[in-house]
Amino acid sequence: MTYPEVLQYLYDSLPMYQRIGKAAIKKDLTNTLALCQHVNNPQDKFRSVHIAGTNGKGSSAHSLAAILQSAGYKTGLYTSPHLKDFTERIRINGMAISQEAVIAFVTNNRDMLENVKPSFFEMTVAMSFDYFAKEQVDIAVIEVGLGGRLDSTNVITPLISLITNIGYDHTDMLGDTLAQIAYEKAGIIKANVPVVISERQEETTPVFIETAQRQHAPLYFAQDYVRVEATDENKVSVYEDGEMMFENISLALTGTYQVNNLSGVLQTVALLQQQGWGIDRQAIISGLASVDMLTGLKGRWQTLAQQPLTICDTGHNREAFIYITKQLKTIPYRQLHMVLGFSGDKDIQPVLELLPRQAHYYFCQAQVPRAMPVDVLKEKARRMHLQGEAFPTVEAAIHQAQQQAGADDLIFIGGSNFVVAEIKEL
Fold first, then answer.
1. Of the candidates 234, 291, 255, the residue with the CA atom closest to the CA atom of residue 165
2. H helix runs in 329-373, sequence order
3. pTM higher than 0.70 for the full model?
């Protein structure tokens, strides 16, 4: 089988959440465990850090991986979804898994895949763990796909668990209160394994305390130990136990929301250091300054062009757009142009309520089954007094925004991973 044939086989044969939504989610770990057992339980053959959360888990995973790479460790990184190509999900020291390795895994295990009939995500998790074990990584940073407790990645026993911000997303599957969602995320907390919580939140803190106590897991609320202050554009100072640890260090990830992620990342690094991992100050500084280059991260407050300034971001829920709209206000521009599309199974009302009414909107529909029909999106936006045009594709919407924007305007592209994935310049 060729690589395109393998991908088509996987897309056609295995239910994929990014394409069909909730129907692709399996409610237990049975399939993942069966797949892992078939390939000799690779999840037990490498050390790892496990990261869950609503917002920030992807950026935190890439940041931690960049620091570990800078410290000289052979570092695996598993994230989802991919933006441009499937191989982005599985990386070692920033290099994506080869197409040949993907072909080999599917070809060698095709009978098992057809017998177990796993989801696309379950298969990907087994493939990544098998790859990391065979390549003998020193450590792997594993990002949860959805939730935590029943997520396919939750078959590992990590050195440390990290849980980032908790917000309202996937409420139809995880619960409609922050406490219920936190319960699902807290499912990655393992017996006697330290857990770091990036942000204290009133509704979720009791959930994490109770779960950690039940599991006898040392619990660290990162902001009690590490304080991060933005000092300048793309720079921060870091204080540990009240004393300055880093002054005006540069960040490759430039969204203002990255400050909230950093406390959790740095507390996780501190715990790894306590466990004997050799991560010096320069590795931290170099890693944070080069996250995108070291790990291949795309789509996190990424600048695509100047004149007009064009920025994209994969944030897709209310909590993410609180920071997106706040950061947009910090940028000088004559007119704001927003190219937006969303998933059809999302409650976008809380997002629409945050959007600036004075912007000009270009509503679009990504080329995936889960995408919200653009006419539906335009009508929902109209009810919120957001005016704009509807376009059948992301490309058409971006092209029109570029045609209408002046040199001193700002173009923002986002609303969904699917929208960002279809940006040609990415």
1. 255
2. 349-352
3. yes
Query: C-alpha dihedral over 379, 374, 23, 26, to 10 degrees?
Result: -100
C-alpha span between 375 and 372 (Å, rounded): 8
* Numbers of helices and strands, H then E, in the chain: 18, 17
Instruction: Quote the Cα angle for 57-417-415, to 5°.
Output: 105
Q: How far is CA 156 from CA 141, 148, 265, 275, in A?
A: 11, 12, 19, 18
- Which residue blocks in 194-311 are alpha helix, DSSP H? 205-215, 258-274, 281-289, 291-295
Q: What is the pLDDT of residues 380-392, one digit of tens each?
A: 999 999 999 999 9
CA distance 226 to 267: 7
pLDDT recorded at residue 17: 45
DSSP 149-195: TT-TTTT---SEEEE-B--S-SHHHH-SSHHHHHHHHGGG--TT--E
Q: pLDDT (tens digit, 9 = 90+) per residue, 184-205?
A: 999 999 999 999 999 999 999 9
Nearest residue to 53 via CA among 206, 168, 216, 158: 168
C-alpha 269/C-alpha 271 separation (Å) is 5
Check if the beta carbon of residue 90 is closer than 8 Å to that of residue 295: no
For 348, the token pair is 């976008």
